């Protein structure tokens, strides 16, 4: 649950990991350059003080306020009731007894009902990281291109260094493209519902049907898979040994 960002980046670099190191670094830089530009342009095109995602949540919660009864206690504290339930909202401390307001730093439906009773702008109850200006500032610094290597200014002490390849021996076989599954992940194996064995499905099964244990009757041979060429049980015409000797 704490590696979602890393998993998203890994999925984007699934095919780029096969590239050389310098090409991979340039691929990542170019990808981040496009991401920052697109998200900065999308943030500047938003028409509300909050981000579009936060504004939609506010609209859904405002609809619930029409069915709530608000009783003011003082200028900042309100008692909100709905279908026998009651919550206490403090607009000054930005808290609610439902705990959503103080946990998310985002007004719940009870806080919005109290804010409407006081004619208070709901954007003042939201944290800064839900606002449009904060999203614009997050992507305001562009990812600049590095240019051609001939235009790079490399210090002389760095340019004079000789870096050799590491002394390593490549393992036999093709390199692994996927990632290692963690201990908490479950791996599923394919099993045939015809014979019950793993490693194939019922379409490619050439084994006899599975017989249930108990008083049930075994499956007769005439219900097994037969070859249309030699009419034998246990294979089909694709794997029939008499296929080549058959004259059409």
Automatic annotation (TrEMBL):
Highest taxon, organism lineage: Eukaryota
Instruction: Write out the ranges of the annotated region (Disordered).
Output: 165-218
Q: Which UniProt keywords apply?
A: Metal-binding, Zinc, Zinc-finger
Please list the residue ranges annotated as the CCHC-type domain. Answer: 192-207
Keyword ATP-binding assigned to the entry: answer is: no
Q: InterPro entries per the record? A: Znf_CCHC (IPR001878), Znf_CCHC_sf (IPR036875), Znf_PMZ (IPR006564), Znf_SWIM (IPR007527)
- Cite the SWIM-type domain residue spans from the record: 87-119
Q: Which SMART domains match?
A: ZnF_C2HC (SM00343), ZnF_PMZ (SM00575)
Q: Which GO terms describe its molecular function?
A: nucleic acid binding; zinc ion binding
Q: Does the keyword Zinc-finger apply?
A: yes
Q: What is this protein called?
A: SWIM-type domain-containing protein
Q: What is the scientific name of the source organism? A: Acer negundo (Box elder)
* High-level lineage: Eukaryota, Viridiplantae, Streptophyta, Embryophyta, Tracheophyta
């Amino acid at each position: 649950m704490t590696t979602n960002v890393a998993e998203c980046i890994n999925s984007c670099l699934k095919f780029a990991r096969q590239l050389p190191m310098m090409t991979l670094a340039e691929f990542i830089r170019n990808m981040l350059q496009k991401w920052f530009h697109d998200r900065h342009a999308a943030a500047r095109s938003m028409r509300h003080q909050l981000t579009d995602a936060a504004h939609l949540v506010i609209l859904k919660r405002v609809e619930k306020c029409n069915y709530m009864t608000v009783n003011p206690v003082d200028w900042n504290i309100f008692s909100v009731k709905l279908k026998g339930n009651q919550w206490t909202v403090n607009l000054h401390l930005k808290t609610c007894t439902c705990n959503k307001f103080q946990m998310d730093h985002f007004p719940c439906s009870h806080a919005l009902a109290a804010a409407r009773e006081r004619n208070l702008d709901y954007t003042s109850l939201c944290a800064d990281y839900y606002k449009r200006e904060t999203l614009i500032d997050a992507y305001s610094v562009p990812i600049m291109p590095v240019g051609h290597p001939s235009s790079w200014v490399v210090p002389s002490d760095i340019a004079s260094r000789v870096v050799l390849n590491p002394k390593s021996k490549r393992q036999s076989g093709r390199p692994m493209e996927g990632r290692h599954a963690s201990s908490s992940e479950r791996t599923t194996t394919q099993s045939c519902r015809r014979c019950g064995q793993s490693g194939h499905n019922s379409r490619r099964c050439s084994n006899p049907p599975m017989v249930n244990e108990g008083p049930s009757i075994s499956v007769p041979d005439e219900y097994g898979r037969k070859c249309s060429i030699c009419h034998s049980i246990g294979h089909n015409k694709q794997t029939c040994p008499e296929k080549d000797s058959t004259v059409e």
